[in-house]
Amino acid sequence: MSARIVAVAAGLGLLAMASPASAHGAPQNPASRGYACRTSSSAACRAAGAEVTRAWDDVRVPNVNGRDRQMIPNGKLCSGGLARFQSLDAPRSDWPTTTLASGARFTFRYRASIPHEGSFRLYVTRDGYRPTARLTWSALESKPFLQVKDPPMRDGSYTFTGKLPASKSGHHVIYTIWQTTSTPDTYYSCSDVLFKAPKKPAAAAPARPHRSPTPTATPPEQPAGQQPSTAPATAPAADPVAAKSKATSKGGPGSLMLVAAGGTVLLLLAGGAFTLLLIRRSRLRRDPF
Question: Domain 21-196 classified CATH 1.10.10.10?
Answer without folding.
Answer: no
